Amino acid sequence: MIQEPSEVAYLLNVYLFDRIARALGLTLNAQHPHAFPDHIVMILLVALGLIAFSAWLRPRLSVDNPSNVQHLVEVAFEAVQGLMKDVVGAKHVARFTPLIGALAIYILVCNFLGFIPWFMSPTSNLNVTASCAICVFIYYNYQGFRKHGFLGYMKHFAGPVWYLAPMLFGVELVSHLARPFSLSVRLFGNIFAEELLIGSLNGLFPFLASTVIMFLACLLGTIQSFIFILLTMVYLAGAVEEGHDEGHAEGRDKGPNHAETQVAAA
After folding, report:
1. What Cα–Cα distance (Å) separates residue 78 from each residue in 45, 150, 236?
2. Considering only 26-30, 77-81, 199-203, 211-215, which range has the smallest mean pLDDT?
3. Torsions phi, psi of 37, nearest 5?
4. DSSP summary character for residue 34
5. Dihedral sign for Cα atoms in the order 26, 27, 28, 30
6. Burial of 43 (0-12, 13-18, 19+ CB in 10 A)
7. Which of 7, 39, 194, 265 sits most deeply, having the most CB atoms within 10 A of its CB?
8. How far apart, in whole angstroms, are the C-alpha atoms of residue 160 and residue 173?
């Protein structure tokens, strides 16, 4: 896959990271000309930017005189928590908010970073989206084992009907193992295609067609972030829900699966 190089990543590698690597005795060659790939440099910049923003915002939070930035953050936070109440359940909101909130902010900023000249979106690299998807996969399965124990969580894969359990267990196992792949490829494919399209149009029609495409790309980046965290909520809801034989209502049992079906095609 051809990916547009980032001038910012190149400069940081040449004047900072490569020098640090050589000082530590690491060898750079034609196959690995720089200390870090472009997407790793972009991830570091996103992480440092979010840390700096949090350090700047924290002392400025006020109950009596909130700023416009605080209002914006609170609206986004309440929107995410409201969605979590509907999907995961109110009693799990406090426990899962750190993961869902961090994923939402991180993926959204990564998606938008490529709009800045000389930068690139880290999420246009499959390694970045796969790392997020694997973290989600590990976390929701951990929560399932923590809630039900090993045997109790495995019973979720077998379904409520004992004579269909062998078939359903295999189907559910394959479905769960495919989730990191679908999460990562969906996000990567959309952001990579978006950057490729913007780069091509910029070469043909500078500041004309690309302006319209960038507006649509902003919308797409927001939607893809939303889909990623919504599917994460659905997976968490399925992992911590009560078993079929523990008195769950039929509608509650079908809720996460129905939500997953609705967003899978996005």
Report:
1. 27, 34, 19
2. 199-203
3. -65, 165
4. S
5. negative
6. buried
7. 194
8. 16
**For residue 65, what are its two tokens?**
């005189």
Write down how long the chain is: 266
For 163, other C-beta atoms within 10 Å of its C-beta total 6
In 3D, which of 224, 225, 218 has the Cα closest to residue 266? 224
Tokens encoding 14: 């040449």
Q: In angstroms, rounded to a whole number, what is the distance separating the alpha carbons of residues 140 and 179?
A: 11
Share of the chain above pLDDT 90, in %: 56
Task: Give me the helices (H) in the chain, please.
Answer: 7-12, 18-23, 38-57, 68-87, 93-113, 126-158, 165-204, 209-240, 250-264
Look at residues 187, 222, 186, 214 and name the one whose alpha carbon lies nearest to residue 198. Answer: 214
User: 139: which 2 tokens?
Assistant: 């976390």
